[in-house]
Amino acid sequence: MKSLGRDLWLRPMSSADLDAVLAIEFRAYSVPWSRNNLAESLAYGHHCVCLMQEQRLIGYYISQTIVDEAHLLNICIDPDLQRRGLGELLLQEWMLAAREEGASRALLEVRVSNPAAQALYQKLGFQLLSRRKGYYRTLTGKEDGLVMARTI
Ligand SMILES: CC(C)(COP(=O)(O)OP(=O)(O)OC[C@H]1O[C@@H](n2cnc3c(N)ncnc32)[C@H](O)[C@@H]1OP(=O)(O)O)[C@@H](O)C(=O)NCCC(=O)NCCS
């Protein structure tokens, strides 16, 4: 549990949070993670962290650190609360936690069709490494993913 001020705090996600996480996931993404995807991440021991405002779950990230590399698997802010600096705060907190854990590099993939997330990552110093063809499912087919990374 970590207080961030402004009634905001971070805590580990548990299976009791899955309904609230899915409710955000399904509003935020056209191709959301399933309950099973989330449960698997919890079971695999991925870092699954909730951003809370008082008692309300308003965002989360899911990541995995392998040796010195932290890999962001999901980051999401409740659509009702986007564009208030919360995504940036959560991304910073993820990098801080990863560095404390011993990671020296942060890596992520983002859909080519997601300019909001790309702008966030660029703002925080991520650089484009490569493009993965057909990496993501869409409602009608596939789309490319951009791989971005930075030192932390
Ligand atoms: C991407 C996401 C996490 C950003 O969270 P947020 O709280 O809305 O973002 P912030 O308010 O912290 O914005 C920080 C920066 O990101 C960029 N940004 C965020 N939303 C943006 C948008 N809609 N259009 C353009 N730039 C945007 C801007 O550079 C912004 O800095 P600025 O406010 O100085 O312009 C949020 O849009 C989200 O949850 N989207 C759905 C899930 C998703 O796409 N996750 C990423 C998967 S790779």
TrEMBL record:
SUPFAM superfamilies: Acyl-CoA N-acyltransferases (Nat)
UniProt cross-references to Pfam families, sorted A to Z: Acetyltransf_1
Record's catalysed reaction(s): N-terminal L-alanyl-[ribosomal protein bS18] + acetyl-CoA = N-terminal N(alpha)-acetyl-L-alanyl-[ribosomal protein bS18] + CoA + H(+)
Limits of the N-acetyltransferase domain: 8-152
Active site: E109 (proton acceptor), Y121 (proton donor)
PROSITE patterns: GNAT
Keyword Oxidoreductase in record: no
Enzyme class, first EC level, given as a word: transferase
Keywords: Acyltransferase, Cytoplasm, Ribonucleoprotein, Ribosomal protein, Transferase
Position of the signal peptide: none
Subcellular location: Cytoplasm
GO molecular-function terms, A-Z: protein-N-terminal-alanine acetyltransferase activity
Record-linked InterPro entries: AcTrfase_RimI/Ard1, Acyl_CoA_acyltransferase, GNAT_dom, RimI, YpeA/RimI_acetyltransf
Enzyme Commission number, as recorded: 2.3.1.266
Gene Ontology CC entries for this record: cytoplasm; ribosome
Residues noted as binding acetyl-CoA in the record, renumbered to the chain: R83, R84, G85, L86, G87, E88, N114
Function: Acetylates the N-terminal alanine of ribosomal protein bS18.
Similarity comment text for this entry: Belongs to the acetyltransferase family. RimI subfamily.
Name of the featured protein: [Ribosomal protein bS18]-alanine N-acetyltransferase
Organism: Permianibacter aggregans
The encoding gene: rimI
